[in-house]
Amino acid sequence: MESVYERIASEIYDKSYAIVDDFISEDLRASLLQEQTELLEAGKFRLAAVGKGEKKQIRTEIRNDQVLWLNPDELSRYESIYWGEVEKVRLAINQRCYMGLKSFEGHFARYPKGSFYVRHMDQFQQVIYRQVTVIIYLNDSWSEEDAGMLRMYLPQANGSEEILDISPIGGRLVVFLSGEIPHEVLPTNKERISITGWLKDID
Ligand SMILES: O=C(O)CCC(=O)C(=O)O
Ligand SMILES: [Fe+2]
Fold it and tell me: Which keywords does this chain's UniProt record carry (predicted)?
């Protein structure tokens, strides 16, 4: 039988994105959320920047989430488990799509009530090595009224775009090609927590 990792790889191959509910166990989701909350309370989060290197800047009119980068050399127990899952996704995509993905980088993200991230592409000049975006949502509960959907603009063969709105339901994994799908985070009515990362074609 096809594994969940193979299914993700096939969907990436066929349509450039994949969505998997309950990708991680409820225990792992709750533990990652708990750790994230402790780090937040310890004041470890920073306003997210846009751009990279000399072009890096805080632009709260573009995005106003707060992030904390995962340190691959000092992963917590639960971060390591999630990292291992992403590793399996990486290998499956390489096998199916020959993308030569070599490594992963990621950060916790907290979108406070009222925050958003306007339409953008994850792969741009300074981060051309970002090939595949991988997001896991950690929220305890989410309903329509909470808003804060991830809105993807799927390019169509006729040049138009199809809009796909995805609720940040806890345990849900979203994977997509970083250089192909523009997307945004719609304003959220409730605190919204995730780990966002990128599979890269460099070490
Ligand atoms: O949290 C999300 O749904 C998307 C976040 C995002 O687009 C990003 O961090 O680049
Ligand atoms: Fe993004």
Answer: Dioxygenase, Iron, Metal-binding, Oxidoreductase, Vitamin C
Distance 36 CA to ligand 2 centre (A): 20
pLDDT digits (tens, 9 = 90+) for 111-138: 999 999 999 999 988 889 999 999 999 9
How far is residue 70's CA from residue 106's CA, in Å, rounded to a whole number?
Answer: 6
Is the model's pLDDT at 55 over the cut of 90? no
Query: 196 is in which domain, residue-wise?
Result: 4-200
Largest CA distance in the chain: 50
Atom number in ligand 1 closest to CA 174: 3
At 50, the amino acid letter reads V
Dist. CA 163–CA 198, nearest whole Å: 22
Please list, in sequence order, all residues whose beta carbon lies within 8 angstroms of the beta carbon of residue 158, skipping any fewer than 6 positions away.
none
* Phi/psi of residue 82, nearest 5 degrees: -65, -45
Domains contained in the chain, number: 1
Q: Nearest residue CA, atom 10 of ligand 1?
A: 122
**Closest ligand (CA of 135):** 1
- The reply to whether the predicted model has a pTM over 0.95 is yes
